[in-house]
Specification:
Chain lengths: 152, 382
């Protein structure tokens, strides 16, 4: 079980159209180029997502998977959830309610489907003691804060 | 007896709208809600009817979908209630004895003849239809001579009468039509025959109604119950299923699945999408399962087709003319890697393998795979 590799949590900007998607992709490309990248995109701030944005998410996922890593989505805003469902891409990603759950999922096997059978099991808080510790988490905030990216 | 009717479409500030369009003006199974109410009112034998709608509602073609004898009044400067009052006074001056005032608002299937008879029997100035809980259904009958009562009622947005009025109890079908979910329920209830709303089209197979001019590609699937409105287009490999309603002039592009949803008039839904439990229209999608409404700015996903028929024709002609040049240009732009030698390409290891496993002598182990190592998948007891 790999526990030492960091998990990158990146917050997606409010707008994810063609222009912003390209900018965002150039920002995250270094993380995706790492060996077996473990990346979580937090979509809680997304208020505008179009086909170019969805394309970018798929590009990132394929980039991560090509290097034996994975990309997971967390905290989807209503807009993001509806657009991902509309474009049938929601089934291609592992989606978690929040970034913490998404990060923990890299070290523990608890697919969303199993949650209905174990309603109390949310991440590692209620998980059995023999579950491994979660990996190191690196929250990545944008270097220069713009209109489109507001870090909490 | 001279009975005239005023139908108010809208009048609620916060709710009862989808993308700023009053739900009353939207189509349900091929006909606007307001027109369906007017049809019921006309059975009463009213001499004149007027529809008062909010100003600036961007729904195109609503005037043409109403019958010619219906007067359509668009309230200017947002003075909706003042406009309704003016219309009441006009009807009173034209010699009406009773004026039926209906706000949609809630959809009901009131027996207006019985309602009028109730009003006359009681000798009332103003009568109101109420539900079993005693709440007003925004249906009033006002004696035309009672202009002050009407003015007071309209200035209070039908919430407070000037004097106590007679209550007519209605126990039939009621849909509050407050939001997109209610609009969807109204259509589903129509399919299920829980109300008298019938699809305005021809039943081409059990449970599938298609209106005039609708075009369904032979490769598309339409599963009952479903309704395809006038001049709607369902393109190749699209699937319309589970009580979906495609209203007039809507376009569902190739491969898109519309499941348990309503597509409002003049809406374009892009190719390869999955619309499920939603009401789509006016560049927005209301997802009923998530209870979320989002605006979609990307025209490749959801957009509006032009409402002008000549422009639509020109657009279609332009698409046809430019199809070959566009396809050629796209072909030049696309960089395809075609293997020169098919056998060589087949023998080449999968690109998924970053490196081919090699043995100690540097030979690829792929070719020396031992045939005695076999895997078998078990089927049942075999």
């Amino acid at each position: 079980m790999e526990t030492s590799r960091p998990v990158i949590v990146k917050r997606i900007p409010e707008r994810l159209d063609k222009k912003h998607a390209r900018k965002f992709l150039s920002e995250v490309r270094p993380f995706l180029a790492a060996d077996r990248p473990q990346v979580v995109f937090d979509l809680s701030q997304v208020k505008h997502l179009d086909a170019a944005g969805v394309d970018m998410l798929l590009d990132c996922m394929s980039e991560a998977m090509r290097r034996d890593g994975d990309l997971k989505l967390a905290a989807l805003s209503a807009h993001a959830a509806v657009v991902l469902e509309l474009t049938r891409t929601d089934r291609l990603f592992e989606i978690y309610e929040n970034s913490t759950d998404a990060v923990r999922s890299f070290s523990s096997f608890l697919p969303n489907m199993l949650r209905q059978f174990y309603p109390g099991a949310r991440g590692l808080h209620h998980a059995p003691a023999h579950f491994p510790a979660h990996p190191a988490v690196v929250h990545h905030e944008p270097a220069a804060k713009g209109d489109d990216e507001r870090a909490a | 007896m001279d009975v005239k009717a005023i139908v108010l479409a809208g009048g609620s500030n916060a709710t009862e709208h989808i993308a700023a369009v009053p739900i009353a003006l939207l189509d349900v199974l091929g006909e606007p809600v307001v027109q369906r109410v007017l049809t019921r009112v006309e059975k009463l034998g009213v001499t004149s009817t007027a529809v008062v709608a909010e100003h600036g509602c961007p729904l195109p073609g609503i005037r043409t979908s109403l019958r010619p004898n219906v007067k359509f009044v668009e309230a200017v400067n947002g003075d909706f209630w003042r406009c309704a009052e003016q219309q009441f006074n006009d009807f009173a001056q034209q010699g009406a004895e009773l004026i039926l005032l209906i706000r949609i608002g809630p959809y009901t299937e009131l027996d207006y003849e019985d309602f009028v008879q109730f009003h006359l029997d009681r000798g009332a100035r103003v009568s109101v239809a109420v539900n079993a809980e005693g709440e007003s259904l925004d249906r009033f009958i006002i004696s035309a001579s009672r202009r002050n009562d009407a003015a007071f009622l309209l200035r209070n947005e039908l919430k407070r009468p000037r004097t106590p009025c007679e209550s007519y109890l209605y126990k039939g079908y009621i849909n509050p039509l407050r939001n997109a979910a209610d609009l969807r329920h109204l259509a589903l209830d129509g399919f299920a025959r829980l109300n008298t709303i019938a699809p305005a089209g021809t039943e081409i197979k059990p449970g599938v109604w298609v209106a005039d001019g609708a075009r369904i590609h032979p490769g598309a699937r339409v599963l009952a119950p479903a309704f395809i409105g006038a001049r709607a287009k369902i393109r190749a490999s699209a699937v319309i299923t589970r009580g979906s309603v495609i209203e007039h002039h809507a376009v569902v592009d190739c491969g898109t699945v519309v499941e348990n949803s309503t597509v409002l008039p003049f809406t374009y839904i892009g190719a390869g999408l999955d619309v499920s439990i939603s009401v789509v229209g006016f560049r927005q999608i209301s997802n009923l399962r998530r209870n979320a409404t989002v605006e979609v700015g990307d025209a490749r996903l959801i957009s509006m087709t032009t409402t002008s028929a000549p422009l639509r024709t020109i657009g279609t002609a332009m698409d046809l003319v430019t199809f070959v040049p566009r396809s050629l240009a796209a072909g030049f732009r696309r960089s395809r890697t075609v293997p020169q030698s098919i056998p060589e390409a087949v023998a080449k290891p999968s690109a998924a393998l970053a490196s081919v496993p090699e043995d100690s002598s540097g030979q690829s182990t792929v070719a020396s795979f031992q045939t005695n190592l076999m895997s078998a998948r078990r089927y049942g007891n075999e």
